[in-house]
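Incident review: delayed structure delivery

Summary: a single-chain prediction request sat in the queue longer than the usual turnaround. Root cause was a stuck worker, restarted by the on-call engineer. No data loss occurred. The affected request and its eventual output are reproduced below so the record is complete for anyone auditing the incident later.

Affected input:
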Amino acid sequence: MRRCEWSSFRRLLFLLLLLLIELGPGIAQAGKSFVLVPQLAVGDGWSADIFVTNQDSIRAEDLSISFYATETGVPLAVSTNLGDGPAFQFDLEGGTSQAVRVMGTGGLQVGYAVLRFPERVSVRTNLFVRWQTGGETVTQLGVPGQAPSHCFSFPVEYDPSKQVNMGVAVVLPVLDTTMTDPHNLVVSLIDQAGALFRTAVVTLPPGGHLARMLNENELFPGLTQFTGNVVISGSVPVNALALRLEGTVLGSVGVNSGPVVRSFMVNASATAEVEANDGPAQAMALTAPAHIAAAIGAPGDVDYFGFTGQSGEILTALTDTRGMASDVDTVLTLLGPSGTALATCDENGLLSSSDSFVQAVLPADGTYQVRVEERGSRGGASFGYKLHLTTSIPESPTPNPVLTSITPDTFALGSTVDVIVTGTDLQGVGDLLFSDAEGITVTNQQITPTKITARFDVWAGAFPGPRTLRVARGGFSNELTFTIVPASVAGKTPTISNLVVKTPVYVENWVDIHIAFDFTDPDADIRYVATDPDHARILFASACGSFAETGPVLNKGGQTSGTLSFTLRLTDYRSGNYTINLQLIDAAGNGSNVLSFVVAAWECAWEPADKRMLPESAPFLARSAKDHGPANLAASLPGRLRIMRGLVKRES
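Output delivered after worker restart:
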């Protein structure tokens, strides 16, 4: 017998991995430089502070920070200390800074931000992100600006016995508007001895991102214990982030530019370069692995080396001048079978190094070439270098399990039910994982590649309502939803229709909207009980996530149909039109269909006498217009609503 559950902590980790990838310190484009925060989430307890600093001695004018929605790229309105909207402008004197504080009120919004500033001014950014719940900060992390690079590395540790794991995130920023094709990123594990241990390939579309734990399917499934380094490289500049999880404590990990070079070198003795190899037609033929001792023998000299590659192979080529007293500053380019440049690297990112490092996934079978040139077109006897070239086959990705159905999908309190969950790639998955396992005992679990059977014992005292389940094998599957209901009302769900929204009445301090709709409820439990925290209610949720609920207006016990009418009072400033979703919840926790309506923009000039009585972002406040007056409403809701200056406020 076992009880299975998974924490919302992994969702927190995943969002942090998305949030904390910041691009900097500035890429020039059309007379302007910009810094990109390619993933930003605000609302639902998430907030972020972006600190912009002018390190220079001169004034930086016309700085702008703009926010965009992730999937559509349309302007994204946010609430900040600079105001509400999708974009803000400011100037920075030399040595000064500006904090842009993006508030965490409302529903979760995911997007990205772009900071633009004049070229030739040194502007830097730092991002701080926090997650709060119940008025307390659960997690707060800070990340400095990170320049995009072809390669990053950082230390990692995975030890399940100590509850130590690593979260790895990569993002492919769109630095070039002509970038339309997906790109492959190579992720390598280097053990403590410096040996290449495992290699995976991650494919990302322009602007795409991946955030995974080290042992998940997209990276290194089946990992048992590991200490060493991760190297992430791409044929185009990328950004990377690492987080370390120990128990339930999360912290950021420093990410270094450049690879762990020694792990990709060929140990065999070097073979001398064969001249002349100054053009593609004269390329020196190599067979991987290869170690070549070569030189840029004269100014303008260019060396070509050819090899045969197969589709899907990982090509690693690097130049090395350590210990050679060489003056060369190499530029390394991988050319495809048609002669097109597939990847180019000037400097490998290591400190005090002018060497180059290229790693790419070969797109097709054919003959490839590696070109080595001197950055300043210099050359001579002191411009020697060593070329290391290897090819390897990456691990085949393991597909995540997929769930397709759960039968039945409704469970009565106090029942014992045999359950069938269908899907694909289910072999080897562990226990069923619930969003909330309280009140559920799982026994007799049997697993095949396409089906999981189990027996659910649902406790009589379990909390009713919807829950989700999923499975894991390295990575997590999708989620399926099921519902727990009282035995007497299983499957009896209310419906609502014929929504009538009258013209809003704009008052100096608020807006009143008179609303009515029809309802049907087969089990007639649209019933409010003041002492029951799980009473019937109407839920309102805006596009920004604010919500409220009504109570005594729902004293309709015994009625299977009827009409509900009331007044929705809004005391929250809005700079644009927004949608309110309305749903009826009966006493058993069954939710109806959702009806929606749009509220036009308006501005509230009222300043409450006691701001402490209202939250920073005032919620929707509802009172009865037909069945109850405000005084009766407050009297019938002890400990849950209070009247303040004629308004009804929901207690937390």
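Verification: Residues 9-135 form a domain with the Hypothetical Protein Tm1070; Chain: A fold (CATH 2.60.290.11).
Action items: add queue-age alerting; document worker restart procedure.
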